[in-house]
Design goal:
mainly beta, about 80 residues, globular, 8-stranded mixed beta sheet
């Protein structure tokens, strides 16, 4: 699926991913390929996504995510990017 992470200042990530974990306002949740369409608000926490280069994360202060037709768009405030093993 295609993931796009956008902040007020820049586009943080754009590319193919296999799974994304979000800090939802009602608890964390994961999105995988062919997920049902949805829109959700996000709270402060870590967004973790996996692509061909490995697992990455971005700390956000909140935002909104939309999932539609294997495209995931995250509009968020990003604090910093982290690489994970």
């Amino acid at each position: 699926m295609y993931l796009e992470i956008v902040t007020p200042g820049k586009k943080v990530y754009e590319g193919e991913t296999s799974i994304v974990t979000f800090p939802g306002t009602d608890g964390s949740f994961q999105v995988m390929n062919d997920h049902a369409p949805m829109v959700s608000t996000l709270s402060k926490g870590r967004v973790v996504y996996k692509d061909q280069q490995g697992t990455h994360s971005v700390e956000i202060t909140g935002g909104i995510v939309e999932v539609l037709n294997n495209k995931v768009t995250l509009l968020a405030d990003a604090l910093k990017e982290k690489e994970e093993a």
